[in-house]
Design goal:
The chain contains 39 helices and 15 strands. With about 900 residues, the chain is an alpha+beta fold. The strands form 4 sheets. It has a 4-stranded mixed β-sheet with strand order 3-2-1-4, with helices on both faces. A 4-stranded antiparallel β-sheet has the order 8-9-11-10, covered by helices on one side. α2 crosses α4, α9 runs parallel beside α13 and α28 packs across α30. The longest helix is centred in the middle third of the chain and has 27 residues. About 0% of the residues have low confidence.
C-alpha cells in the first residue's frame, strides 16, 4: 500500500470509508436499491477522479486534450446502477478516429489505477461502430451494453453510439431475442434448471437477479424500454407482475448486499451457512414445525419462482411470431372438439375453448389430458389464461374433474412436465390443497437438494423414467396396473413436512383428505394411505436393518400385505431416492432394494415362508460346497459353510463364496488374505479380508480405518465370523479417485493398507487422506440443523442390540464409531453403512463379548453417551482444524 502515489492512497481510503458508511446504512435497514445506487455513486466519484488525474498527468487535460475524443461508459450492473459493494466495475471507453493513437496510454493508466485502489475493472475499448457491430453478433455483449450510460468525456460521442446501437438492435431484434433466451436458458441449466436448488446463486440461478435483467433486456430489444416502470405504462407488463418483480428485486438486492458486506468480498451464493445467519439477521422466528431458516428460504423460493415465471412469460410474449409458421399453421393443424387447436409445436385454446377454461377445472384438466395424449405443451397464451382464471374457480372438486386428474396421472407421457405446469398455473393447489403449504418449503438438510414440492414432482418424473430401465425396477414399473395410484402417492409422500408432527403421520391425513376429494374407492384410498404413511419403510429396512433376519422379513411382508402394494412400494422407494439429488440412487442402492423386494415377494406368495427360506439357504450351502474341493479339506469347508450368515449366502453367488473360502483354508493364525474385486454392475469395488480374530484386537474398526485412510467411501460392511474363530469381512466401497474400474495398482495399494492394519497395527488413529469436497463436507457437518443422534433398539432383533447413528458425514467418522464400540466392549455382528450426500446413517448389530444383547438400561445409556461424545469431539477437532482429521 505504501508504494502507491498519494492520490491513489487517498482514493483507496475513500473506497474503504465509503463502503463502511454504506454498510452502516445497510445495517440500519436502508433499502437494497438505495444502497446499490449509493455504491454506484461512490464508484462513479472514484472513477471520475482517476480519469481526471490520468488526463492531467498525460497532458490531455486541456481543450485540445483527449477528453473531446473519448467517453467513459459504465454498462451492465454498473451502468444499471445496482452494483453490490464488491461488484465488478464494467467500463467501456468509446473513442473516435481522432483519438485512436492516444487512447492506449489512457487505458493502461486507468486499468492500473482502478485496480490499485481495490476495484475490479472489466474494461473494453471500442469505437461506436465496433461496439454496435459486436453487440449485434454476440448476445452477451448486447445485453451488457443495453444497460449503458454516460459518465465522462464527450457526451455527443456517447449519444452517437446510443442512437446507432438502438437502431441496429431494432433491425436484428428477432435474432437478438433468440440469442438472449438461449444464453439465459444455458445459464439456468448450468446453475440447475429449477428455482428450488437449495444453495442458489442469487444472480444466476433461475428466478435470481439475472431473470430480472433478462426481462429488462427483452423489454429494450422488443419495445425500446428496459425500465419495468415504463413497460408497465406501455401495458406490456401487468400491474401484478410489475409489483411482484419490484418486490423481489428489492429483496434480492438487499440480500446480495448482506452477503457482500458480511464476506468483505464478492459473494452471490446463498449457501447453508449464510441461510442460517441471514434468517436470524433478518428477524425470522420460526414456528413449532418450521425452523427460522426454513421460513426465510420459503420466502426466497416463492419470490424467485414468481420472478422466473414472470421473466419467462414476458420473453415468450415478446417473441416475434414467424410469418411462415403463421401461414402454414392452418394447413398442418387441426381442431379438437371445436375447443382446442393441435398445432405442430403446441396445443392452444380457441375463443370458445378459452371461455370454457376460465370457468371450469374440468376443461383445464381435459386440456392437460389432451397435451399428454399428443405429447405437446400447452401454448403460452393458453397457460396465461388458465393462470388468471384459477383463483376464481371453486375450491370444491367435481367428480368429473377428479376423474380427469386421475386419468392424467395414469399417462406417462409428459407427466412430469404437465404436473410442473399445473403447479405453476395454480391448478395443482386446487386439486391438492396441501401444496399451498409445501410451495417453496425448504428441507434444511444436506440430504435433500430440492424443496418439498419440487422433490415430490421430481419423484413422479423419476418413476416414469423407469419405463426405460431394463432391469427389475423397470420391469416392475411397466407391469403396474394402477400406475396412477403410485404417481398420486409420490405426489403426496413428503407434503407432511413443515409441521410439528412426524411428516409421515401428517402425510397419512393428507392422503385421507386427498382420497375423499378425488372420490377414490375404499380399497384405493387404503393403498394410498399406506404408501404415503409407509413410504420410508422399505428404504429403512433395506439400508438400516439386517434383512437376512427372516422374522423381520415376515413382519415386513405381513405389514405390506399384497404383492401389488409391495411392487408400488419398491418403485416408490427408488423414485424417492432418485429425486433427492443427482447420484443418490445408484446401482448399488437399486441392488439392495431389489434384493429385499424379491425376498419379501417370495414371502407374500408362500404358505410357509419361514420353512422355504431355510430350505433356500440349505440349497445355497450345497451349491457353495459343489464348487469346493472334495479332498481332505472337505470337512473344514463344510464346517465353515455351515456358519455362513444368511445375508451373505442370499446376496452372494455360490462361486464367489467358494472363491472367498479357498484361500482361507491355508491361513495360519497370524496370516491375512485381502483382495479387491470391481463390480461393474454397481460401479463399486468389493474388498474382502480373511483372518483369525486372534490376530489383533478390534479387527473391524482397524479395517474401516485403513479403507477410510485411502480416501474410500464405505457403502456397506458385511461382517462374517465363521467356525474356529475365522473372520471374513467384506466392504463395498466407492472410490472417488476413479470414475470406472480402479487400476490394479490402486487395488493393490488398498490391499496393502488392509494387510498392514492387521499385521502392523498402531495405537494411534490412521491419518485420513483429504479428498475433493472435504471442506464442503466439514462445513455442512458443522451447519446441519439435524443434531447428531444415537438411538438404541433392543426390540427388533432377538439376538442383537441395534445401534443407529445419524450424523453429518466427515472424515474418520466410521472409524471413530467402530473404535468406540470396540472400546465399549461390544462385538459388531452386522453393519449397515448408509451415506446420503453428506448425511450418514450407520447401523450396527452388536452384542457384548459373551454374545448377549445389552439388556441393562444403564449400559445402553452409557453406549449412547460415549458414542455421542466421540462424534461431537470429532466435529470439534475438525472445526478447529486439529489432529489427523
Amino acid at each position: 500500500m505504501t508504494g502507491l502515489r498519494p492520490p491513489l492512497l487517498e482514493a483507496k481510503q475513500q473506497l474503504a470509508d465509503g463502503r463502511a458508511k454504506l454498510k452502516a446504512r445497510h445495517e440500519k435497514g436502508s433499502p437494497g436499491i438505495q444502497v446499490c445506487r449509493a455504491c454506484t455513486e461512490l464508484f462513479d466519484s472514484l472513477v471520475l477522479s482517476l480519469f481526471e488525474q490520468a488526463l492531467e498527468d498525460l497532458g490531455e487535460a486541456g481543450p485540445e486534450g483527449l477528453r473531446a475524443s473519448v467517453a467513459l461508459v459504465p454498462h451492465a450492473g454498473y451502468g444499471r446502477a445496482d452494483v453490490a459493494p464488491y461488484s465488478d466495475v464494467d467500463l467501456m471507453l468509446l473513442y473516435d478516429d481522432h483519438g485512436a493513437e492516444r487512447v492506449s496510454p489512457l487505458v493502461e493508466r486507468l486499468v492500473r489505477d482502478v485496480y490499485d485502489i481495490g476495484l475490479v475493472l472489466g474494461q473494453s475499448v471500442r469505437t461506436p461502430a465496433e461496439a454496435s457491430q459486436l453487440a449485434c453478433r454476440d448476445a452477451t455483449i448486447c445485453t451488457s451494453l443495453i444497460e449503458s450510460r454516460f459518465l465522462a468525456g464527450n457526451e455527443d460521442l456517447f449519444n452517437r453510439f446510443a442512437r446507432r446501437f438502438r437502431r441496429d438492435v431494432n433491425r436484428r431484434r428477432k435474432s437478438i431475442l433468440a440469442g438472449m433466451q438461449e444464453a439465459r436458458h444455458e445459464e439456468r441449466a448450468q446453475f440447475d434448471e429449477t428455482v428450488y436448488l437449495l444453495e442458489p446463486n442469487l444472480k444466476r440461478s433461475p428466478g435470481g437477479l439475472r431473470d430480472v435483467q433478462w426481462l429488462r433486456w427483452t423489454g429494450f430489444v422488443r419495445y425500446g424500454a428496459a425500465d419495468p416502470d415504463v413497460l408497465r405504462l406501455m401495458d406490456v407488463l401487468s400491474h401484478e407482475d410489475h409489483d411482484a418483480l419490484l418486490r423481489a428485486y428489492e429483496f434480492l438486492l438487499r440480500l446480495r448486499n448482506e452477503l457482500h458486506f458480511y464476506a468483505d468480498k464478492p459473494n452471490d451464493v446463498l449457501d447453508r451457512a449464510e441461510q442460517m445467519r441471514v434468517a436470524e439477521k433478518f428477524g425470522y422466528q420460526g414456528t413449532e414445525g418450521m425452523l427460522p431458516v426454513e421460513q426465510f428460504m420459503q420466502d426466497y423460493f416463492r419470490m424467485t419462482k414468481r420472478v422466473s415465471q414472470i421473466a419467462e412469460r414476458f420473453a415468450v410474449s415478446a417473441r416475434p411470431g414467424s410469418w411462415l409458421l403463421a401461414m402454414l399453421s392452418p394447413l398442418v393443424s387441426h381442431q379438437f372438439e371445436r375447443d382446442f387447436r393441435v398445432e405442430p409445436r403446441q396445443i392452444s385454446a380457441n375463443k370458445r375453448g378459452l371461455a370454457k377454461l376460465r370457468t371450469s377445472l374440468v376443461e383445464i384438466l381435459r386440456l392437460a389430458d389432451l397435451s399428454s395424449l399428443y405429447n405437446k405443451p400447452i401454448s403460452h397464451a393458453t397457460c396465461e389464461a388458465i393462470r388468471a382464471a384459477v383463483p376464481n374457480l371453486s375450491d370444491e372438486i367435481a367428480p368429473e374433474a377428479a376423474m380427469r386428474f386421475l386419468s392424467l396421472l395414469s399417462q406417462k407421457a409428459r407427466l412430469g412436465q404437465l404436473l410442473h405446469a399445473l403447479l405453476d398455473m395454480g391448478v395443482l393447489e386446487k386439486l391438492i390443497p396441501a401444496y399451498t403449504h409445501a410451495h417453496g418449503l425448504l428441507q434444511f438438510n444436506v440430504y435433500h437438494k430440492y424443496t418439498v414440492d419440487e422433490h415430490c414432482l421430481r419423484a413422479v418424473a423419476a418413476a416414469t423414467e423407469f419405463t426405460a430401465d431394463k432391469g427389475p425396477l423397470g420391469n416392475v414399473y411397466r407391469h403396474l396396473k394402477r400406475k396412477w395410484l403410485l404417481h398420486l402417492a409420490l405426489l403426496l409422500h413428503d407434503l407432511g413436512k413443515g409441521f410439528p408432527e412426524d411428516h409421515s403421520e401428517v402425510g397419512r391425513q393428507i392422503a385421507d383428505d386427498t382420497a375423499r376429494r378425488l372420490f377414490l374407492k375404499p380399497s384405493d384410498a387404503e393403498t394410498l394411505r399406506f404408501l404415503v404413511h409407509k413410504h420410508l419403510l422399505m428404504s429403512h429396512l433395506a439400508f438400516r436393518r439386517d434383512t437376512s433376519d427372516n422374522d423381520l422379513l415376515v413382519r415386513f411382508a405381513v405389514e405390506v400385505g399384497s404383492p401389488e402394494v409391495l411392487e408400488m412400494l419398491y418403485v416408490m422407494s427408488a423414485a424417492d431416492l432418485a429425486s433427492v439429488g443427482p447420484g443418490v440412487l445408484n446401482a448399488w442402492k437399486v441392488e439392495v432394494l431389489t434384493d429385499l423386494f424379491r425376498r419379501a415377494m417370495r414371502h407374500l406368495g408362500l404358505d410357509d415362508p419361514s420353512r422355504d427360506y431355510v430350505a433356500q439357504l440349505d440349497n445355497r450351502r450345497h451349491e457353495v460346497l459343489s464348487h469346493l474341493d472334495n479332498g481332505s479339506e472337505r470337512p473344514w469347508f463344510e464346517r465353515q459353510v455351515a456358519t455362513l450368515p444368511g445375508s451373505y449366502l442370499a446376496m452372494t453367488a455360490p462361486e464367489t463364496i467358494a472363491d472367498d473360502l479357498r484361500p482361507l483354508s491355508k491361513l495360519g493364525s497370524a496370516d491375512v488374505v485381502a483382495r479387491g474385486r470391481y463390480q461393474s454392475d454397481t460401479e463399486t469395488t468389493e474388498y474382502s479380508v480373511g483372518t483369525y480374530e486372534s490376530i489383533t484386537p478390534g479387527v473391524f474398526h482397524k479395517l474401516t480405518g485403513a479403507l477410510s485412510s485411502q480416501g474410500l467411501q464405505i457403502l456397506s460392511a458385511d461382517i462374517n465370523t465363521l467356525a474356529d474363530g475365522l473372520v471374513l469381512d467384506r466392504f463395498r466401497v466407492s472410490d472417488p479417485d476413479f470414475s470406472g474400474e480402479p487400476f490394479p495398482e490402486r487395488i493393490d495399494a488398498v490391499r496393502r493398507a488392509l494387510f498392514a492394519a492387521l499385521r502392523q497395527p498402531a495405537d494411534d488413529p490412521p491419518a485420513f487422506r483429504r479428498v475433493w469436497g472435504a471442506n464442503d463436507q466439514r462445513r455442512h457437518a458443522r451447519l446441519s440443523p439435524l443434531p447428531t443422534q444415537v438411538r438404541i433398539d433392543n426390540s427388533t432383533s432377538d439376538r442383537y442390540t441395534i445401534v443407529d447413528v445419524f450424523a453429518a458425514d466427515r472424515m474418520g467418522l466410521l472409524y471413530t464409531i467402530t473404535r468406540e464400540l470396540f472400546d465399549l466392549g461390544l462385538s459388531v455382528a452386522v453393519a449397515k453403512i448408509g451415506t446420503y450426500l453428506d448425511q450418514v446413517v450407520d447401523v450396527f448389530y452388536v452384542t457384548d463379548f459373551t454374545g448377549r444383547k445389552i439388556e441393562h438400561q444403564h449400559h445402553r445409556d452409557e453406549i449412547r453417551r460415549r458414542l455421542f461424545e466421540k462424534i461431537e469431539e470429532l466435529e470439534r477437532r475438525e472445526a478447529a482444524g486439529a489432529g489427523k482429521w
